[in-house]
Write a structure and sequence with these properties.
CATH superfamily of the largest domain: P-loop containing nucleotide triphosphate hydrolases
Number of helices: 11
Largest sheet: 6 strands, mixed
Strand order of the largest sheet: 6-7-8-3-9-10
Mean pLDDT: 88
Number of strands: 14
Shape: elongated
Oligomer: single chain
Strand content: 25-35%
CATH topology of the largest domain: Rossmann fold
Helix content: 25-40%
């Protein structure tokens, strides 16, 4: 189990992350979401043992990660920017990983490259951002780690590569009981793969729950007002967002229940239909509802 306990990290006495606690079991994918500067990358680098926390603990199977090579052998880390040795080609990088990581699985790497099709004779500096990201995922996963920590791993990937990435990641979790901590702005992707999510705001945990519970916090409704929605509807405190195309109104509400349905129908609704809300919609509405969100 990965355990992050009461973590605090700051620079020049300015806090970046404050009192953050997260647990990630083997076989679980835990997502980190939040606006830019929320502290996601700092938290990821602390979890990977790159930064030393000012306060708190980060434990992998009960052992601290910072300055602990034995624990770091259990971890794969994919950064948001992966440079490696610029003048090496991909073949050289693979050979280096085989030397430094005794469990490196070259057969798996070759299988992955049947999918991602990286030019193995090309030097690192000549790779695109998306190619470097694919290479990082392949190298770190083929180390056969117990835990995989990733910061924006789909950055630079085209839609086909993103789909393959998520498929391979899910397969690794299922086949090897891999524990994953992943930060991403690709909320659609996280929604498909995550078991649980932590939402960060200004370096602190704003919400933390299973994906199922998080999506139940708000409800999206399609509501038909044939004569248009009146002021009484717009004044309902449960409604956090409302938009319409003709007589069909889309509402995002908090505290959806039978009483709200009755009040909507009393206000002229001829149809009230709950529909799925995406993680991206949920995140945006929650941020807007705080009253301090700025694009």
């Amino acid at each position: 189990m990965l355990e992050i306990k009461d973590l605090y990290k700051g620079y020049d006495k300015n806090p970046v992350i404050k009192n953050i606690s997260i647990t990630v079991d083997r076989g679980e994918i835990h997502g980190l979401i939040g606006e830019n500067s929320a502290g996601k990358t700092t938290l990821i680098k602390c979890a990977a043992g790159i930064y030393m926390a000012d306060k708190g603990e980060i434990l992998f199977d009960g052992e601290p990660v910072f300055d602990n090579p034995t624990v770091k052998e259990k971890i794969g880390y994919v950064a948001d920017y992966n440079e490696y040795i610029r003048f090496y080609n991909i073949k050289n990088m693979v050979k280096m990983y085989e030397v430094f990581y005794p469990h490196f699985n070259i057969e798996k790497f070759n299988d992955f490259n049947e999918i991602f099709k990286l030019p193995v004779d090309r030097r690192i500096y000549a790779l695109s951002k998306g190619q470097k990201m694919r290479l990082a995922f392949m190298l770190e996963t083929c180390k056969e780690p117990d835990y995989l920590i990733m910061d924006e791993p789909t950055s630079g990937l085209d839609p086909v590569a993103k789909t393959k990435f998520f498929e391979l990641l899910i397969n690794e979790v299922e086949q090897r009981d891999l524990g994953v901590l992943i930060s991403s702005h690709n909320l659609d992707g996280l929604e498909r793969i995550c078991d649980s999510v932590t939402m960060l705001k200004s370096g602190e945990v704003e919400r933390q729950m299973s994906m199922e519970d998080m999506k139940e916090e708000l409800t999206k409704l399609n509501v038909v007002f044939e004569g248009g929605a009146g002021k009484a509807v717009y004044d309902m405190p449960e409604i956090l967002r409302i938009s319409n195309v003709g007589s069909i109104y889309t509402l995002v509400v908090k505290g959806f229940d039978d009483e709200l349905i009755k009040r909507l129908k009393k206000s002229g609704a001829s149809l009230v239909e709950p529909v799925d809300i995406s993680l991206e919609e949920l995140f945006v509405v929650l941020e807007e509802s705080r009253g301090d969100y700025h694009e």
